[in-house]
Amino acid sequence: MKKNLKSKVGDLFHIPLIDGRFAVGQIVDQWREGAICIALFDEVHNDVSQKLVSGVQNLKVVSLPSVSKSEVDKGHWPVFDSAQIEVNLELAPHHQFANMDYIGATWMSGGMVEDLLNAYFCGATWEPYPGRPGHLKS
Fold first, then answer.
1. pLDDT tens profile 3-51
2. Which residue among 5, 23, 127, 134 has the highest number of C-beta atoms inside a 10 angstrom radius?
3. pTM of the model
4. What is residue 138's predicted lDDT score, i.e. its pLDDT?
5. Whole-number Å distance between alpha carbons of 14 and 21
6. Residue 1's pLDDT band (boundaries 50, 70, 90)?
7. Rounded Cα distance, 80 and 50, in Å
8. Exposed, middle or buried: residue 61 (CB in 10 Å: 0-12, 13-18, 19+)?
């Protein structure tokens, strides 16, 4: 059994894609116990041993969703490095709820994040409701 890791703000991690490559993400905020905001970058690696050639300041942000910290802590999205946060956290959807103890803030499942990235990088369908094409307009 894998031992849980202790991820932290600044950690860079890989998210597996359906074509065998890995998308790159970074923990940019922990706003609740077990809830983190991540930056998903327009960057893919061919294997988990690959590192960033230059810092995150040169990467385009695709999305800033909030997810369960367990995706990283349990090693499903393996950490490969750490870097300074370069993302404007005021752009993160959860930020607008900070003064209200985050009531109204939402988060995505790890599977939804992977589906988003598979649609973005691999051309996979972005239909969360099989058999109901066009239900989600993106």
1. 677 899 999 999 999 999 999 999 999 988 888 999 999 999 999 888 8
2. 23
3. 0.85
4. 47
5. 9
6. very low
7. 8
8. middle
What is the C-alpha separation between 123 and 72, in angstroms, rounded? 25
For residues 88-113, b (16+ Cβ closer than 10 Å) or e, as one string? Answer: eeeebebbeeeeeebeebebbebeeb
Determine the Cα–Cα distance for residues 39 and 29; give it in Å rounded to an integer. Answer: 9
Contact indicator for 130, 31 with CB cutoff of 8 Å: no
Q: Tell me the two tokens of residue 65.
A: 């969703």
Amino acid type, 131: G
Cα-based angle 30, 33, 35 (whole degrees, multiple of 5): 50
